[in-house]
Amino acid sequence: MAASSRTPAPHAREAQIFPRLDWETIGRLLPYGDVETPAAGTILFRRGEREVDFFVVMEGAVELLEQEETDRTTVFRAYDAGQFTGELHLFNDRNLLVTGRTAAGTRVLRIRRPEFRRMISTEADIGEMVMRAFILRRVELIAQGQGGVTLVGSARSADVHRFRAFLTRNAHPHRMLDLDTDATALEALAGFSLADTELPVVLLPGGATLRNPSTQSLAAALGVDGTGGPDRLHDVAVVGAGPAGLAAAVYAASEGLDTIVIESEAPGGQAGTSSRIENYLGFPTGISGQALAGRAQVQAQKFGAQLAVSRGVAKLDCSERPFVLTLDGGETVRARSVVIATGARYRRLSLPDYERLEGRGVYYAATPMEAQLCRDQEVVVVGGGNSAGQAAVFLSRTCSHVHVLVRSEGLASTMSDYLVQRIDDSRNISLHPFTEVTAVKGEPFLKEVTWTNRLTAVSELCPAAGLFVMIGADPNTAWLDGCVPLDVKGFVRTGHAADGSPLTSPFSTMLPGVFAVGDVRSESVKRVASGVGEGSVVISAVHQHLADLEPV
To answer: In 255-383, where does DSSP find H-type helix?
Structure first.
């Protein structure tokens, strides 16, 4: 009998999402756990808990319960004999999304967390099947909005955009109730006395409510911000979860290092916002930046890396050993080595009203969320690099027209040829060389963009729903506070001592034990593949540093 569900799966991958183990496979798992016969109605795991165990159903069934905004719970799925519980929470310390309850006559094999990790590593074929199922189960939860939170507010508001981007990039299920278009949104707020400054509202299962919280407060409520505490000593702290940082985490954790990744926003960095990367090795049909980052994050956590999200590093204390990193909010993390992978951020335009319109039509990423907000309207993309090209091609599918603005004479010297050709061939994209934005206007959202040709001084006003700014790169290095030398642009200098002699690694800074990889490193190649390469290679230097610390 297949796993039962009140709502059919939206795709035909049921056997991969809810595979059934035969008795031979279950026999291989028996040494890792204990067989139990719980009474009917026993709660095996509860939503909001962490550190839950892995269960294989041998007889009976385990029902999954979803807790709604009220205290009411509903059964939305049941695992029966041969199937197993769990999803991606088993690889991290995040809050569990659902509750599991036993039916009558149930017998289960309980595999506790440490043994589960050992089983995943030792039984490679079973581990592969379990990993695939867990990833697809999270995808299904997201698609159906189960186990997540509900956002209530205007879909075009800057704060809603901030929350949706955070939840989406962290693969957390959520539903959106738009006050501008959805009558049920007003019903959801019935009984609340809310000022405009308290919107949007985040409704948590069980009835708890967050009124326009900070991103860090939302992360704490969802349990995605944990660091393990100030007393834990990590072998390596990776600051930044872009491609370089995630690669470093995968290689460090897989090689047995106690690894923590500290990320101020969400995994993926700038690359995580790319709609489709088509020149990354091994993905001939392309892959979105979010999908690539999501896979890398799960891979790192599979090997035991800890990920603390929405926890920016405010300061690195390089006067102490081990190093002490102070996070936003005052919490500290101790590590024997540090890998700087904080990348760079797009530059902002210096224009009146620009800052007010950020998140209200001015964006730094082109994802399906922004594309939906700008659907059937004109948009403007500023920038001549691959990120801008990918955004223009992606937006041209749903927007009425895309205007690409560059200060130079064209795209050939700054953008991959396959993107240049697609822009040239598209009837929905116009290229404006020697052009820059000179004004933005709109209340409360962006309505108009004015650009000016630098050669002719002729200005043009465009009614636009979106301005996508993807220019330049300002390094995220303010938190280093003089600990390591920077170049004139603020990027971290690596590879050479003060006298110009080479250091032991091209990724070493002048401060022993501190390394830099990816876009934040001076003179690095700003490409996803090169960042991944640097992140993987730097771990050999980390190993050498840690070995040098060991007493002889």
So the answer is: 289-302, 368-373
- pLDDT tens, position by position, 315-368: 999 998 999 999 998 999 999 999 999 999 999 999 999 999 999 999 999 999
Model confidence over 78-116: pLDDT tens digits?
A: 999 999 999 998 988 788 888 999 999 999 999 999 999
Looking at residue 444, the DSSP 8-state letter turns out to be S
Is residue 195 within 8 A of residue 22, CB to CB? The reply is no
Other Cβ atoms closer than 10 A to 73: 17
Strand 323-327 to strand 332-335: parallel, antiparallel, or no bridges (unpaired)? Answer: antiparallel
Q: Identify whether the C-beta of residue 270 lies closer than 8 Å to the C-beta of residue 344.
A: yes
Whole-number Å distance between alpha carbons of 305 and 267: 13
**185: which 2 tokens?**
């949104």
φ and ψ of 168, to 5 deg: -65, -45
Structure tokens at 384: 């001549």
Contacts of residue 12, Cβ cutoff 8 Å, sequence gap at least 6: none
Whether the per-residue pLDDT at 282 is higher than 90: the answer is: yes
Q: How confident is the model over 375-426, as pLDDT tens digits?
A: 999 999 999 999 999 999 999 999 999 999 999 999 999 999 999 999 999 9
Strand, helix or coil at 362? strand
Q: Which two tokens stand for residue 474?
A: 């300002």
Here the tokens at position 237 are 């702290």
Strand order in the sheet with 459-463: 435-441, 448-453, 459-463
Residue 538 CA to chain centroid, in angstroms? Answer: 22
Higher local confidence (pLDDT), 120 or 51: 120
Backbone phi, psi, residue 80, to 5°: -110, -165
Closest CA to 94 of 152, 150, 148, 19: 148
**In the chain, count of helices (H) and strands (E)?**
13, 31
**Scanning the structure block, which residue is given the tokens 């592969």?**
128
pLDDT digits over 428-450, tens only? 999 999 999 999 999 999 999 99
Q: What's the 3-state SS for 252-278?
A: HHHCCCCEEEEECCCCCHHHHHCCCEC
Angle made by CA atoms 349, 353, 358, in degrees to the nearest 5:
65
The 3 state secondary structure assigned to 171-225 is CCCEEEEECCCCHHHHHHCCCCCCCHHHCCEEECCCCCEEECCCHHHHHHHHCCC
Q: If we measure between CA atoms, which residue out of 403, 394, 375 comes closest to residue 465?
A: 375
pLDDT at position 3 is: 45
Give residues with Cβ within 8 angstroms of 27, minimum separation 6: none
